[in-house]
Each structure stands twice: as C-alpha cells, then as structure tokens.
Write a structure and sequence with these properties.
By secondary structure, the protein is mostly helical. It has a two-stranded antiparallel sheet with strand order 1-2. Strands 3-4 form a two-stranded antiparallel sheet. A hairpin with an 8-residue loop joins strand 3 and strand 4. Helix 4 packs parallel to helix 6 and helix 10 runs parallel beside helix 12. The protein starts with a strand and ends with a helix.
C-alpha cells in the first residue's frame, strides 16, 4: 500500500490510503513502469523498485485513478481537476487526456470529449486500449454523427468488451457489454450491405444483457427490426411476442446514429396488437428522418400493408 499523498494533495480526505490498481495502465500507458507483467492486467504485480524511484509518476497515476473514480460517480468537475493536477508532472502524458475524455463524455460535452480522446491517441497509440474509454469515445462519435469513425472504434472494442479488463470486470455478461453491442449493431444496420453483420452483433447484444431490463428489451426490438428487414418476418414476430410496443428510453436512443430507428422498432412491435398506433409510428418514422434513410422503402411497405388492412375493416 502507498500512503495517499496524491489524494490529500488533490483535496481527498486526509490520511486516505491510495492504491493505484493495475488496470490504470489501460487508460494511462505511462503508468506501466509501476507494474511488472503483461499490459497492466491482473497477472501483473506492483514494481516496488520503480515506484520508489519515480514518486512523481506514482502520484500522477494515483491522481488519475482518483479522476476515474470521480467520473464514474458523476463528479465531473472533480475528475477534470484530478486530470489537471496529474498533468503537472510528468508532463505531456496521455492518461490525463483519457480521463478528461471520459469525464466530458459522461457530462455531455461531446466536442471536448472527442478532442481529448484524440489528443491522448496522438500522444500514445496504446492510450485507448481500455474498453470503458473506447465505449465512451464511440458513444460520443455516434452522438456527433461521425458514423465511420464510430464503427472503427466499436470494431476494436467488441472483442475486448467482456473479461477482466473489459466492460464486465467481474466476469460474465453485463448491461455495459450489451449496450456496446447494441450501439455497434445499430451502426452496422445503417448500411443494408452490413445487415448480416448487424444481425450477428445484435444477437450478441440480446444474449449479453440482463433478463428483463431496458437494454435487453431494446436489443430484442433492434434484432427483430433487422430480421424483418432481411425478410425473416416470422422470426421477428416471435421475438416481439412479449414486447408489446415498449418505447426505447432516451438514454438508449442517443446510442443510435439515427434516433428515429427507435420509432421503427416500436412500430414493428405494435403491429400484432395495435395496428392503428403501429401505422402512426411508421408514418412518424418517415416524417422524422426515416424517409431519407436506406430503410425508407421497408417502412413504406409496412404502411401500405397496414393501410390496406385498415380499409378492409373488421
């Protein structure tokens, strides 16, 4: 254990013991000399000799870990303050920029977040090895409508979404991993040529989430929409048999490069039980931007079918 001098200097509680975890190396590669072993992972150990030789680096890494804790707890100004203090020595390191990027991402300052992540990556190619940072960066790129850049980030992220250094640090699957797959699946579905890839990714999103939460339910709706667009109508209907047209929560809609996709998901889910509302939703999808997207014809087919059914009457 190392006494929390960095914590006290940064305004932390007096006498607090600060222990920089090995995982900080994934967010701050400059901290790697403090540990012995591969990549700062769980198999590495503290390098006591290097820690003693470089107290300023140890203080720097302690401050960064305090910044990580702060942004995870929603204390964004504290996180930015810890990053600024860590910048003092050693100077010009990527770790503080990663912490800034994640704090700004969760605070909603998208432009500053993207600039911070890109600054970190320009300083060290390994600066964005961390799964959590990649997901925050990818989500920012989605909200900035930088679809091609976001796809590249999620292609790097998905293979490392699970595991001890992924989005599920306690093993198994979790909503964070499911949300990353859902975001990547939505990005892939923007291009009809990538529909098969989107379906495969969305199947993973469905499998990795909890059993009865918003992420899993939205993943099911997204997968059903992708299958319906492929022509697998019966599979889509089976998936939606217990959904009953639930709305996609706002915090998940911001993960869609095209937010109106949430309207199409709900429209499809409503069809078996409320054709009138489903028709209204499909029309709303086109009005709110779907008419300019690759799947406009698919929506119009559903509208035509529902209008024909409405004319027939009971």
């Amino acid at each position: 254990m190392v006494l929390g001098a960095a914590s006290a200097a940064a305004g932390g509680p007096a006498g607090q013991v600060a222990i920089t975890p090995r995982s900080i190396v994934l967010k701050a590669p400059e901290c790697a000399p403090l540990f012995k072993g591969p990549g700062g992972g769980e198999s590495s150990t503290t390098n006591l000799w290097e820690s003693a030789k470089m107290p300023s680096l140890r203080a720097h890494c302690d401050l960064l870990q305090l910044g990580v804790r702060a942004f995870r707890e929603g204390r964004f100004t504290d996180a930015l303050a810890f990053a600024s203090r860590a910048d003092a020595e050693p100077k010009d390191q990527p770790g503080p920029w990663v912490v800034r990027g994640e704090a700004y991402a969760r605070w909603g300052n998208l432009e500053e977040s993207a600039k911070s992540f890109e600054k970190a990556r320009s300083m060290n190619a390994r600066a964005l090895d961390d799964a959590e940072a990649l997901d925050d960066y990818g989500a920012v790129l989605v909200r900035l409508h930088r679809a091609d850049d976001a796809r590249k980030i999620y292609r790097v992220l998905l293979p490392r979404a699970s595991g001890a250094t992924g989005l599920c640090p306690f093993g198994g699957d979790c909503d964070a991993a499911a949300l990353a797959y859902l975001t990547a699946g939505e990005l892939a579905m923007e291009d009809p040529a990538q529909l098969e890839e989107a379906i495969a990714i969305l199947r993973e999103a469905r499998a990795r989430g909890g059993t009865s939460n918003d992420v899993r339910r939205t993943s099911v709706m997204a997968l059903a929409l992708a299958l319906d667009r492929r022509g697998d109508v019966d599979q889509a209907r089976d998936l939606l048999s217990k959904i009953f047209g639930a709305e996609v929560p706002p915090e998940l809609r911001v993960r869609f490069i095209a937010p109106e996709e949430a309207i199409a998901m709900r429209a499809l889910a409503l069809e078996p039980n409320d054709a009138t509302l489903a028709l209204a939703q499909w029309r709303a999808y086109l009005v709110q931007g779907g008419d300019k997207r690759a799947w406009a014809a698919h929506a119009k087919e559903h509208i035509a079918r529902l209008e024909k059914g409405a004319k027939k009457g009971p």
